[in-house]
Amino acid sequence: MDSRLSVDCLDEIFEYLENEKATLYSCLLVNRLWHKSSVRILWRNIWSVPISYPNRRRWVSSSKILRTLIDCLPHESKVLLSEKGIYSTSKLPLVNYVSFCKVLSIHEVDQIIQRNLCPTKRELVLQEILKMFMKQITSLKELDYKITSSEIPVGFTSFPGAIDRLSDLSRLICSSNFCSEFFRKLSGICHNIKSLTVEIGTTISDGLNDLITQSKLNQLTLITSFSSSSLSYIIPSLTKLSNTLIKLEIIGISFYDFDHLQHFNFSQLRILTFEREFLYLNTFLENNGKNLIDLSIGYSDSPLAIAKFCPNLKSLVIAMMNAESLKAILNSCQQIESIEIWCNDFLGEKECVGILRKLLPKNFRKLKLAKSVLYHNQFLKWK
Questions:
Q1: Residue 144 lies in a domain
Q2: Which residues touch 371 (CB under 8 Å, ≥6 apart)?
Q3: pLDDT attached to residue 293
Q4: pLDDT value of position 294
């Protein structure tokens, strides 16, 4: 009897290693059979693989990924790059790695190209790689298209095969700065977007509302900075998601544009994140807190509102709380399983642990205490 595992068995085993990139990378080197099974999973989202940067030792180099992408280019693209003195033509690799991709990060592709090629060559290489992705990806599920430093034509949606590749897109990460034509064209192609993350830039395109009001959208993240435009233009679009929105994240500066949202009810909202203070949180929670199971709030002028209006919480992340508020939350939110708190002058570590020992809910399983102010990316990582 052949003791070797069959391809089907290996496929099943490697599926459990989807998030173990280092292990999958090692499996590539065992033999051809293991390589065939692991490469398909590894390349679903090659951008999540740890990449080596200058002065940082990791196990995959950005130049390797770029070289592999260029090797996968069709013959005509290689000839074009060769004529421009960028690349010497070679045979196609035995495995068409690009066809396995389910996630495309134009941002990461651009960053990798920037690290490995001189400025005069970057745009052409990026254009040819994007054309290849639009032709060869069998089914694209996620697209990360944030602002980059290169002059990238947003017209990549017009590349051959783009309509077929983008039609199944379920998650999109983009910038608000792109022209309205880009957003409207994308809205016309993509009707299955469930998760949308928008980095708010200095301008907000008119066409962005077309994406925000997608019928299947149920997760929305808005990331802003001190130089961002006002969000008042897109707030009315949020009200159109009242019966579909499950997750809402607002990451960045204070949000004074949300005053008229405080009275609005999102009947399906389960997850809410505000990195900074939300001036109208109390009223908003009064209308929406009952359905929330996951709440992350940077600051709140009245944590007691959480205890009063959010009885079904299972997870709470909060940067400011006193002893009385913690006691009230533990007494009211009997289903809570996880609390993460920034300890401060109002609530120290010992006092926090002491309260938990006395009022620990039955299902409680996780306590995390931080000692410093958390902003922006730190807040996301802390969560």
A1: no
A2: 342, 343
A3: 95
A4: 95
Could you give the C-alpha distances from 38 to 9, 22, 44, 48, 51, in angstroms and in order? 12, 11, 10, 15, 18
What backbone torsions phi and psi does residue 317 show, to the nearest 5 degrees?
A: -120, 125
- 316 - beta bridge partners? 295, 339
CA quadruple 73, 93, 26, 101: dihedral sign: positive
Is residue 239 packed enough to be buried (19+ CB in 10 Å), middle (13-18) or exposed (0-12)?
A: middle
pLDDT at 299: 65
Domain carrying residue 307: 246-383
Domain count, the chain: 2
**Mean pLDDT per 10-residue run, the chain (383 residues)?**
62 76 76 79 78 49 81 87 77 81 87 80 85 86 74 67 84 86 84 90 82 88 76 81 90 67 87 76 88 84 82 86 81 87 67 77 78 44 41
The whole-number pLDDT of residue 253 equals 62
Which residue carries 């907000």 as its tokens? 204
Contact (Cβ atoms closer than 8 angstroms) between residue 191 and residue 214: yes
Residue at 147 is within a domain: no
Angle at 105 between CA 102 and CA 110, to 5 degrees: 145
Whether residue 83 is contained in a domain is answered as: no
**Residue 331 falls inside a structural domain:** yes
Which backbone phi and psi does 373 adopt, to 5 degrees? -70, 135
Task: Quote the pTM value.
Answer: 0.81
The torsion defined by the Cα of 57, 58, 59 and 60, in degrees rounded to 10, comes to -110
Question: Is residue 119 within 8 Å of 72, Cβ to Cβ?
Answer: no
Q: What is the CA radius of gyration of the chain?
A: 24
Output the pLDDT for position 309. Answer: 92
